[in-house]
Amino acid sequence: MKNAKKQPLILKSGRCGALRGEVSVSGDKSISHRAVMLGSIAHGETLISGLLEGEDVLSTMAALRALGVEIAKEEGVWKVQGVGLDGLKESRAVLDMGNSGTSARLLMGLLGARPFTSHFTGDASLCRRPMGRVITPLMQMGVEFSSTEGNRLPLEVKGPAQAKAIDYALPVASAQVKSAVLFGGLSAQGTTRVIERIPTRDHSERMLCHFGADLHIQQEDGAEIISIRGGTALTGQKIDVPADISSAAFPMVAACLHEGSEVRLNHVGMNERRVGIVQSLIDMGASIEIINPRDVCGEPVADLVVRGGKLKGVTIPASRAPSMIDEYPVLAVAAACGEGTSRFLGLSELRVKESDRLTLMAQGLRAVGASVEVRGDDLIIHGTGMPPRGGALIKTALDHRIAMSF
Ligand code: S3P
């Protein structure tokens, strides 16, 4: 029911035995957003299979429909009738991003560079999240922003008659910021360059190439420079969205924690900038077999077989954070059940997700009896080799990844 105040559900979870079987994991959220967005601004039809139909992606779809794009599902395949960048029309309705930071930030880049005004809003959690990180570079491109809430939603975003190409060195390791600038760059005159020192997920770059954008990547002084030339028309494509490794992480951890488990996960996205969770679980002693690695629409994909056993403590360097940023909550659960101390270093970005995930994980783990410390932006978990006692009510702040982890 739209606009009805959501009542929190109380879900109960308890111990189970060994897990055996195959899990079919839903489509990758990051890739789904990008497929709908690029399909909308391409010329011709884009066919998407495996699309994630969660609320976040539906928010992206609703916004693009409000801008004049036809999107419909037929026989399991989503069909996006691309209108070309010039075909997007100003929306009279406010664009409601719901809970989705990816929709908000990427669409601000895509629409902000168009010569019309858009109004963005979101739910209470999204309206608290920082938008200055995309506003700063987009203003350099000529986009104007106004808000009564500082650099937060709700925001009015007014595009210039002609967006300017910029060179932008990312001050935070954020794929959303990188993508916002690249998507804005599609409308700019000339070549926009993004300089990335810490690698973040590159789904936008891969998919832009797949749709025929004029995009090049070069390495310089240890940084990656991504260049995109504005004004090149994209062409509709077929996209097969792989399973989301961030969602696969939940059954993976569950299987790892139960001796005798054997769980198969098929068609999982294995983009090397997303697989920090696999590396971390292997470092903790997990058995994860990677089968039949292949390329699907420009993205690496594989099947995984996860076998249960004992996990041990691990230190995860801050440099690995971008490749597993959404998986820390569930890995914290693994660490609490494993034996020995785990240290997750440099988690400042976890504080600005759908909730302050660093604080909520520490609180929840303590509530179920685990021994946890937060030192600055580091999370330290002292595992006993046994599952914590449980028996607590966990505060999730409506954050799905906190709920699913516990
Ligand atoms: C995303 C990037 C990450 C991630 C989010 C999805 C994306 O955010 O946490 O769930 O699709 O680009 P940041 O770019 O803020 O790190």
How would you characterize the overall build of this protein?
- The chain is built from twelve helices and 20 strands.
- The chain has 406 residues and is α/β, with parallel strands linked by helices.
- The strands form five sheets. Strands 1-14-16-15 form a four-stranded mixed beta sheet. A four-stranded mixed beta sheet has the order 3-4-2-13.
- Strand 7 and strand 8 form a beta hairpin.
- Helix 2 runs parallel beside helix 3 and helix 3 packs parallel to helix 6.
- The longest helix is centred in the N-terminal third of the chain and has 13 residues.
- The mean pLDDT is 96.
- The site of shikimate-3-phosphate has 10 residues, from helix 6.
Topology:
Blueprint: E1 20-23, H1 29-41, E2 43-49, H2 55-66, E3 70-74, E4 77-83, E5 95-96, H3 101-112, E6 117-121, H4 124-128, H5 132-140, E7 144-146, E8 155-158, E9 167-169, H6 175-185, E10 191-196, H7 203-210, E11 215-220, E12 223-229, E13 238-240, H8 245-256, E14 262-269, H9 276-283, E15 287-296, E16 299-307, E17 315-316, H10 328-337, E18 339-344, H11 357-367, E19 371-375, E20 378-384, H12 400-405
Helix pairs in contact: 1-2, 1-7, 2-3, 3-6, 5-6, 8-10, 10-11
The structure holds shikimate-3-phosphate.
Report the structural category: alpha/beta
Strand order of the largest sheet: 1-14-16-15
Helix tally?
A: 12
Radius of gyration: 21 Å
- Termini separation comes to 27 Å
Instruction: Estimate the mean pLDDT confidence.
Output: 96
Ligand inventory: shikimate-3-phosphate
Major beta sheet, specifics? 4 strands, mixed
